[in-house]
Design a protein that fits this description.
- The complex is a heterotrimer of chains A (129), B (235) and C (117).
- Chain A is mainly α.
- The N terminus of chain A is likely disordered.
- Chain A is built from six helices and no strands.
- Chain B starts with a helix and ends in a 28-residue tail after the last helix.
- In chain B, 51% of the residues are buried.
- In chain B, helix 4 packs across helix 5, helix 4 crosses helix 11 and helix 5 crosses helix 6.
- Chain B is an alpha/beta fold.
- Chain C has 117 residues and is α+β, with helices and mostly antiparallel strands.
- Chain C has one domain: SH3 type barrels.
- Chain C has a five-stranded antiparallel β-sheet with strand order 4-3-2-1-5.
- The longest helix of chain C is centred in the N-terminal third of the chain and has 8 residues.
- The chains are: A mainly alpha (129), B alpha/beta (235), C alpha+beta (117).
- At the A-B interface, helix 1, helix 2, helix 3, helix 4 and helix 5 of A face helix 2, helix 3 and helix 9 of B.
- Strand 3 of chain B pairs parallel with strand 4 of chain C.
Amino acid sequence: MGGTQDNPDINDAKNTSSEYTSIAILERIRKRGRVWGDLCAQYGVENPDPPWKVCLEGTCEALAVQACALPTLERRWAEDELSETLYQGVPFPERQLLALAHTLIQRGLFGEDELARRIEKVGERLNSV
Amino acid sequence: MAKRDQGEHKAAPMVEEVSDFEILELAVRELAIEKGLFTADDHRHFTEFAHSIGPLPAARLVAKAWLDPQFKKLALEDGVAASKEVGIDWLNPTGFGTPSDYTDLRVLEDTPTVKHVVVCTLCSCYPRPILGHSPEWYRTPNYRRRIVRWPRQVLSEFGLQLPENVEIRVEDSNQKCRFMVMPMRPEGTEGWSEEELAAIVTRDCLIGVAVPHPERKQNAARPVHKAVHPVQHDH
Amino acid sequence: MSKTHHAQKATGKGDPQCFAGEAGPPKFKVGDQVRIKDLPDIFYTRCQVYTRGAVGEVAVVTHESPAPEDEAWDNVDRPEWFYIVRFKQSELWPDYPAVYANDTLQTEFSERWLELV
């Protein structure tokens, strides 16, 4: 470590955690999920952001400020690394969402199975209306 | 749909399909609430804040300063006090007590010989209460790494080419100061009202990657160029 | 992280404004030539690697605050002065094109990172 990195922005503290392993449930969403850009094209919608983006911002903010569970800087660093590795090529804000879920699981704030079960429940609920 | 019933954000446009990402967002949020990381009410507050912020107050601040030399002086001396006059209270931006960001706002004044541009190479520090959420490109390592190293090349990708005698001053926002740029008022806007002027001070002008133009009210799309040669340095 | 004192101390005043008056007189003034020390990074810093060893000019004496190296551990007892330092780009990047010799970069440091040249 020290002054030999390639990039001016990466400081030593973050450079130690480059091994990211994929998480099955998120991998499935990455592969199968339809991103906002595609939905817009299909349905002729022009809104640049998906409606859930602002809720995602709210979650990130609440995790940093209210919970102190995931400080913004740490979330952003993890997001940067994941965006260049596992979630490379995923557009924004889908990428931010995958990275957030990944980081929360990685930090043990909830489990992968727990998330999978919840996704199933939420999916049933949203699709039943 | 359940989420729309809660009135958390305006109704989605007519995309008649629930995507896996929409489901994931809600699932993550519900689990965080269930684990007690925050409450649904906290989330509603923060989402309202996220929804309410945008670049308009900063644009108004600039337009006002163009028209009023006294206000301009205030803006350059005390960004937080000037923000109040365009409706932004940095000490209470979310409306419930906790500052959600640092509060030392500095306004960087462009002149005929100095052009400012803002970056945060560490992450993506940005004056959110007055400028809204940062655009995606501002957060990318691509912009953050390259603007400090090749500012003229990056600015030209935004369509901004400046003569040699203009000093490009990159401001790397890495501590508790937050920065916005006060660009120069363009020619062709004589006699314009504050509102008309504010309309041409786009978000990109306030970050410093564009300059106002009397006929431009939108941010330009930006092509993304990969860093071909990674940065090396000798210090 | 710093949110604890955010809530307690910064409400109604702002952060870093809530530390005003706690650091004593600033050691440097606008116009001073300073070098960025190459201190070891222990655990956490916000001082960019690309500025280490470079010489610049103090452009603004900004505010008092605990240094991030301390604040990251909730140690807010010893605020220090912060400075925006202006560098010639050619000082940071030796191969920066000479034709753009006027170009500069500014960034901020806590006092511990600076020494007079």
